[in-house]
């Protein structure tokens, strides 16, 4: 097949003519809502330019979205160039509010987030290690109830997004294994739906997958179609964005990079194997190398490490360099397999990044082949520790964006 034929085939595939009219309309509504959700208020004429749709189509779509309560128009602003003043279009946050939940090893966070990314309220509380799934769900339900109570009277709750630090089945939110939470075979999606008493769908995803989604949509990786997000907490998780889409695997289990072998002579992992990446580059390794008792974990450990590193304590700096080396070697493996443009470090790697950076780059270049290594940059996340919580909101809001009319009608009918 020659080049001309390939091009012709592609054009035919994308030509709207072959697409059912309602499907095209849903696609256009989604494009307008997504643009406003991610980029904020714009004028009608800017929307025409960014979506590539004509003026009358935009007016028509905005009319429907206004009726659905998802957007509103503000006063017209004078255009910078020639032409009539164009009204400003913005999302109406209360038109679609989601409950966003993050279940990590050391904390539980809940937020209410409206269309456009407007955060009504957000709360994070410590989670004792060893707490059972039932106990954690009860805490989440209590916090969620309070936040939902606090929403404006006209807010419409449209969904729930949940990030959890464990292996997660996307279809129903079942968690077969969350080694660092100490959970096994937990029907988390069902438990949360029942505890929240909401008819809204509960979408459960792996925490690192949601960190990747958040950094790709709103953070340091905005517009970077090939990125890997690496989260360090008690363990290591990876979220992969491939060609602008989350790479989840057959069931949603992809990205468990923390449990890939990096050192056959290494330490025993909580998953039962020996020498997993997280046993060499994770929290326990950091404490071990820095000479800090294993009872000091989570934020307590990271604060201690940061204080000592800032004081120039050599043992701590050496520990960070060693962690950074293992972290970099593992990143080199991922670079070889996935050829990312950007590797984003989240979780506790974010605050420690200035001390890890040099060793991480060196390890990654050592592990990666030259060609993919030359392309990949490594950076600290842009959204800080809340990236997975923001990603959980994005996951739930993406359902509204995908079919604005269908989603809203389903709720009012
Ligand atoms: Zn493991």
Strand and helix layout:
Blueprint: H1 3-14, H2 21-39, E1 42-43, H3 44-51, H4 55-67, E2 71-77, E3 86-91, E4 97-103, E5 107-114, E6 118-126, H5 133-149, E7 157-164, E8 167-169, E9 174-178, E10 183-186, H6 188-196, E11 202-206, H7 207-218, E12 227-232, E13 236-242, E14 245-246, H8 277-281, H9 283-290, H10 298-310, H11 314-338, E15 342-347, H12 349-367, H13 370-375, E16 377-380, H14 387-402, H15 404-412
Parallel strand pairs: 4-7, 7-11, 12-15, 15-16
Antiparallel strand pairs: 1-3, 2-3, 4-5, 5-6, 8-9, 9-10, 12-13, 13-14
Helix pairs in contact: 2-4, 2-14, 5-6, 7-14, 9-11, 11-12, 14-15
Determine the oligomeric state from the structure: single chain
Percent of residues in helices: 40-55%
Total strand segments: 16
Structural class, please? Answer: alpha/beta
CATH class assignment of the largest domain: Alpha Beta
The termini sit apart by: 51 Å
Cα gyration radius (Å): 23 Å
**Unreliable spans:** 1-15
Mean of the pLDDT scores?
91
| Shape descriptor | globular
CATH topology of the largest domain: Nucleotidyltransferase, domain 5
Q: How is the main sheet built?
A: 5 strands, mixed
Strand order of the largest sheet: 6-5-4-7-11
The number of domains? 3
Strand portion: 15-25%
How many helix segments? 15
Bound molecules: zinc ion
If classified by CATH, what would the architecture of the largest domain be?
A: 2-Layer Sandwich
CATH superfamily of the largest domain: ATPase, nucleotide binding domain
């Amino acid at each position: 097949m020659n080049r001309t034929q390939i091009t012709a085939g592609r054009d035919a595939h994308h030509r709207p003519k072959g697409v059912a009219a309602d499907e095209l309309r849903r696609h256009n509504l989604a494009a307008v809502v997504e643009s406003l959700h991610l980029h904020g208020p714009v004028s009608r004429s800017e929307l025409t330019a960014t979506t590539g749709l004509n003026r009358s189509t935009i007016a028509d779509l905005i009319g429907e979205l206004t009726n659905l309560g998802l957007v509103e128009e503000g006063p017209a602003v004078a255009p910078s160039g020639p032409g009539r003043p164009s009204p400003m279009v913005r999302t109406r946050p209360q038109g679609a509010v989601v409950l966003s939940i993050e279940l990590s090893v050391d904390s539980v966070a809940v937020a209410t987030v409206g269309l456009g990314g407007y955060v009504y309220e957000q709360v994070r509380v410590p989670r004792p290690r060893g707490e059972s799934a039932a106990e954690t769900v009860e805490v989440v339900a209590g916090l969620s109830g309070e936040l939902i109570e606090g929403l404006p009277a006209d807010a419409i709750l449209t969904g729930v997004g949940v990030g959890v630090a464990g292996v997660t089945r996307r279809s129903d939110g079942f968690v077969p294994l969350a080694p660092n939470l100490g959970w096994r075979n937990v029907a988390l999606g069902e438990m949360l739906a029942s505890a929240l008493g909401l008819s809204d769908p509960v979408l459960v995803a792996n925490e690192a997958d949601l960190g990747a989604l958040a950094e790709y949509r709103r953070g340091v990786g905005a517009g970077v179609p090939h990125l890997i997000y690496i989260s360090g907490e008690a363990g290591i998780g990876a979220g992969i964005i491939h060609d602008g889409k989350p790479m989840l695997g057959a069931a949603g289990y992809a990205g468990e990079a923390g449990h890939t072998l990096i050192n056959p002579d290494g330490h025993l992992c909580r998953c039962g194997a020996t020498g997993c990446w997280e046993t060499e580059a994770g929290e326990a390794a950091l404490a071990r190398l820095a000479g800090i008792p294993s009872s000091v974990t989570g934020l307590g450990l990271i604060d201690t490490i940061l204080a000592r590193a800032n004081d120039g304590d050599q043992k701590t700096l050496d520990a960070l360099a060693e962690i950074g080396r293992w972290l970099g070697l593992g990143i080199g493996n991922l670079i070889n397999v996935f050829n990312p443009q950007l590797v984003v470090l989240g979780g506790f790697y974010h605050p420690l990044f200035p001390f890890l950076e040099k060793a991480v780059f060196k390890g990654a270049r050592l592990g990666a082949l030259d060609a993919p290594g030359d392309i990949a940059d490594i950076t600290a996340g842009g959204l800080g520790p809340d990236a997975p919580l923001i990603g959980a909101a994005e996951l739930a809001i993406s359902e509204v964006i995908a079919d604005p009319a269908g989603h809203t009608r389903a709720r009012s009918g």
